[in-house]
Amino acid sequence: MIVAFSLSPSAGDETGGVHEAVAEAVRVVRASGLPNETNAMFTNIEGEWDEVMAVVKQAVDAVAAASPRVSLVLKADIRPGYTGQLSAKVQRVEEALQD
């Protein structure tokens, strides 16, 4: 499965930024060893249900350490039997664009 998720603390720093808290969540994801990527809006992570959801919970806990309230947006692509889809899905679109 692939999960795209976004976390944000309820309050930012003195400039309204949330990057420090979000960086803590990304550290958790990267330390998990699961395939992942981060873009301007979401962090994507690929693996089995239990391992991916455990990492999402740990990331939430990391943001919660800096804020009493956390917002979580999560979208999942659940396709049993498929791996390597984090890049394969994008590759198929790129190939279709070449046609």
Question: What are the SSEs and their pairings?
Answer:
Layout: E1 2-9, H1 19-31, E2 36-38, E3 43-46, H2 49-64, E4 70-77, H3 85-98
Antiparallel strand pairs: 1-3, 1-4, 2-3
Organism: Mycolicibacterium hodleri
Family: Belongs to the UPF0045 family.
Pfam families: Thiamine_BP
3D architecture notes:
The protein has 99 residues and is an alpha+beta fold. The mean pLDDT is 91. It starts with a strand and ends with a helix. It is globular, with a radius of gyration of 15 Å. The chain has a single domain (2-98), classed as Alpha-Beta Plaits (2-Layer Sandwich), CATH 3.30.70.930. The chain has 3 helices and 4 strands. It holds the Pfam family Thiamine_BP. Residues 3-94 form the Thiamine-binding protein domain. Belongs to the UPF0045 family. One of its GO terms (cellular component) is cytosol.
H/E series: EHEEHEH
Low-confidence runs: none
How many domains make up the coordinates?
1
For the largest beta sheet, what order do the strands appear in spatially? 2-3-1-4
- The top-level CATH class is Alpha Beta
Q: What is the level-2 CATH architecture name?
A: 2-Layer Sandwich
- How far is it from the N-terminal to the C-terminal residue, by CA? 28 Å
**What is the arithmetic mean of pLDDT?**
91
Tell me the total number of β-strands.
4
Q: Tell me the structural class.
A: alpha+beta
Radius of gyration: 15 Å
**Which outline best applies?**
globular
Strand content: 15-25%
Pfam family, one: Thiamine_BP
Protein name: Thiamine-binding protein
InterPro entries: MTH1187/YkoF-like, Thiamine_BP, UPF0045_domain
Family: Belongs to the UPF0045 family.
